[in-house]
Amino acid sequence: ADLLRVGLSSAEAQRRLEKYGHNKLTEKEKTTLLQRIWAQVANVLVGILAVVAIVAAIKAATADNSEDRVTNLIEVGLIVFVITTNTTIGIIQEGSAEAAADALKAM
How confident is the model at residue 98 (pLDDT cuts 50, 70, 90)? Predict the structure, then answer.
């Protein structure tokens, strides 16, 4: 009860500092850009889109007429665009969240 009113002695504070360390959150290792990209693309939906893009590319390469070839190449381009856009947005959002967490830690 007296501890609540008076506080710790300097010796007790020093002993607890040595035993428990400073009162702060442990730092998590920063993720690299490649790790962030991998985290965004390593999921089932992106895998399915990649398989569809590969199939469309094969269909384009083996198409008999130029209209089918162009259609399949457009499909490949759109799928790659969707994957790239999704990955970019995810990385930006993750970076913003990490910056906000860092700002809270700095308070």
Answer: confident
Q: What is the pLDDT of residue 21?
A: 87
24-37 residue pLDDT tens? 777 778 889 999 99
Rounded Cα gap, residues 103 and 31, in angstroms: 17
Q: For residues 48 and 79, give the distance between their C-alpha atoms in angstroms, rounded to a whole number.
A: 10
Q: What confidence score (pLDDT) does residue 50 get? A: 95
Which residues fall within 8 angstroms of residue 79, CB to CB, at 6 or more apart? 49, 50, 52, 53, 56
What is the mean pLDDT of the segment spanning 97-106?
84
Please tell me whether residue 12 adopts helix, strand or coil conformation.
helix
The token pair at 41 is: 């693309």
Give how far Cα 18 sits from Cα of 6, 22, 100, Å.
Answer: 21, 8, 31
Token pair for residue 38? 């991998």
